[in-house]
Amino acid sequence: MTTTDASAPARVYRDYAHPLWRRLLFTREAAIVVLLVLVYAVAAASVRNFAAPITITYLLLDVAAILFIALPMTLVIITGEIDLSVASIVGLSSVTLGTLHQAGLPIEAAGTVAILVGVVAGAINGFFITVVGLPSLAVTIGTLALFRGLAVGLLGTTAVTDFTEFWTDLAKSKIPGTPIPSVMIVFVVLAIAFAVLLHFTPFGRGIFAIGLSSEAARFSGVKVEQTKFILFVLSGAVSALAGIYYTLRFGSARGDNATGLELSVIAAVLLGGVSIFGGRGNILGVIAGVLLIGILGSALRLANVTSDVINIITGALLVASVVSTSVLAWVHRKRIGAGIKKGPPAPAQD
User: Where do the coiled-coil regions begin and end (predicted)?
Assistant: First the structure.
């Protein structure tokens, strides 16, 4: 799915001539963070019990799986690709965990196998995209149905619920003295790892280069196919980890777990400033995008808004995040065009 976004504004020297504080604050990601703070403040002031510690706990528990999956999805979309199979990998890993545990395997061993299943699923996606050369959109739509079908086929309409109480309680536990779930510790570790990988390593610079132009990246020495393959494997592994959390949190392994979750993940990633055309984005903006969607959904549910309306709002945010990129690019081109027509300043007269 790698494309070169003809409408994306090219970065020139003057984009970096401004002070660092301006380049950090006057960005789309910073705008999302500010919007997140404003929405939370409004929700806390207008929705009863929204700022209560128990609400914060359940809000973070609800978005934890999305936060996990959004990390590798960010890197995948920056390369110009997409992975629509993540939610079905969550379901497949959930079924794997439940089936193996029901067969007598300890949770630790069953979870390890479930993550390996996610790695294999990601490798299948990566193989068809990087070796066979098929578009990621088509491949992951196909594997979405394949992995979901395998998950439902293994358990049918039944569910495995006899999980050890220690693990189900751990998945819902909080950091002592705070309303923050313990699972956020795992997320913070992963977020730091992905942020360092994306923003502070040659591998991460290669990801951005691929998104801007895969051909130019290839001639620059970036191993394009290998990089994409690694990212899809990471996406599968982290999705499987999210599936384990999802299963233990709800105490139920089902083939239809997390159905439709991929839409929330993609909406949050794009809302967080990642360009659907590739080549742009950062981890902080994505985390803010996930939390923004989570806060909106939580506040609306507390205000007795139906799930259909919440889905409409999420869809509208997704469309707006995509359209805004093109609008900003159009404004940027107009400004550049106006500068060219105006011409250089006339030489000073003695």
Answer: none
Three-class DSSP category at 210: helix
What's the CA gap between 125 and 290, in Å, rounded?
25
Gap between the Cα atoms of 230 and 122, Å rounded: 9
**Residue 181 backbone dihedrals phi, psi, to 5 degrees:** -65, 150
* Domain count across the chain: 1
With 70 as the cut, is the pLDDT of residue 2 above it?
Answer: no
Predicted confidence at residue 209, as pLDDT, reads 95
Q: Do 70 and 242 form a contact (C-beta atoms < 8 A)?
A: no
Q: Please, what is the average pLDDT of the chain?
A: 87
Residues 117/146, Cβ–Cβ less than 8 Å: no
Report helix, strand or coil for 58. helix
Q: Is the pLDDT confidence value at 98 over 90?
A: yes
* DSSP conformational letter for 272: T
Assigned domain for 321 exists:
yes
Give dist(CA 127, CA 134) in Å, integer.
9
* DSSP code of residue 15: G
The CATH number of whichever domain residue 307 belongs to comes to 1.10.3470
Count CA within 13 A, CB hemisphere, residue 128.
18
* Structure-token match 């997140």, residue found: 36
Domain span including residue 69? 13-337
Report yes or no: 64 and 187 within 8 Å, Cβ to Cβ: yes
Integer Cα distance of 59 and 294 in angstroms: 7
Residue 4: both structure tokens together: 């070169």
Helices in the chain by DSSP H: which ranges? 20-25, 28-46, 53-78, 86-102, 107-126, 136-155, 165-172, 183-199, 202-212, 214-219, 224-250, 261-271, 283-302, 307-342
DSSP state of 127: I
HSE (CB half, 13 Å, CA atoms) of 129? Answer: 33
Asked, for residue 21, whether it belongs to a domain, the answer is yes
